[in-house]
Design goal:
single chain; mainly alpha; 2 domains; 4 helices
């Protein structure tokens, strides 16, 4: 737990310094992700197949409603904003990966 706390502290200082109570948020996210992973690991093969089918059905339903719109369906201004968000997310992800290696 001590190592995990130090890692979260480094992330807190570097990536999320502007967000208030972000250390608590990160702790909650790490716990939630661990809980979800344990739940998925405990599933039998039949349960996993049922979950995959449900997920597939959900995806196709959203796709028919055009929820995940393609980038070509946006205006030029929206495209610029979306791509800027993608770049920023990629930067954060790469930065986070660099700190995981340390």
């Amino acid at each position: 737990m001590l190592c995990l706390f130090n890692f979260m502290k480094v992330i807190d200082l570097i990536l999320f310094s502007a967000v208030k109570n972000n250390l608590d948020y990160l702790r909650r996210r790490i716990k939630a992700n661990a809980r979800k992973k344990r739940f998925l690991d405990k599933m039998t093969d039949e349960q996993k197949a049922i979950k995959r089918a449900k997920d597939r059905e959900y995806y196709h339903k959203k796709k028919t409603e055009n929820k995940p719109r393609k980038i070509t369906e946006f205006t030029e201004r929206e495209k610029l904003n979306i791509r800027e968000k993608w770049r920023e997310a990629s930067r954060k992800y790469r930065k986070k990966c660099r700190f995981k290696k340390i």
